[in-house]
Amino acid sequence: MDSSRSAQRAVIQFLRAEEEHASQIYRRIKEVYGEQCLARCTIFRWCHRYEAGRVNIKDLPRTGQAHVVINSATISAVNELIRQNRRIITREIAVELSISKGTVRHIIHKSLGYGKVCVQWVPKHLSENQKIERMGVCLTQEFLH
């Protein structure tokens, strides 16, 4: 038996169309679905929606920030702010660019590959050029001593 939310919403819609009371609908769904049953308040909420004329059993799209915020311009702006000040915090970047802290965190860790070491943002993985450059610095330091 399909115990998904949409299946239970369809049952609620059907029983509500037969003018079944919300508490009776809850009781019947609880008997059939057991532990996978929707919460009582959720069933009452859906009954109220169907009484108000709703016909769709699927969730409506929610408002929120679209994923278009993470683009090459935003990533380069975050990278530039970090390069200017390695000790900058995510909240300051978020305020500067008017984006959420979660988006900033995602860009820093996933897109740019930075991590915090001793309060400074550093690349998690060095590029080939950076590895060669570090090796050169180490070799010159070794010759100096």
UniProtKB/TrEMBL annotation:
Q: What is this protein called?
A: Mos1 transposase HTH domain-containing protein
Please provide an example of a Pfam family that matches this protein in its UniProt record: HTH_48
InterPro entries cross-referenced by the UniProt entry: Mos1_HTH (IPR041426), Transposase-MT_Hybrid (IPR052709)
Give residue ranges for domain Mos1 transposase HTH: 7-53
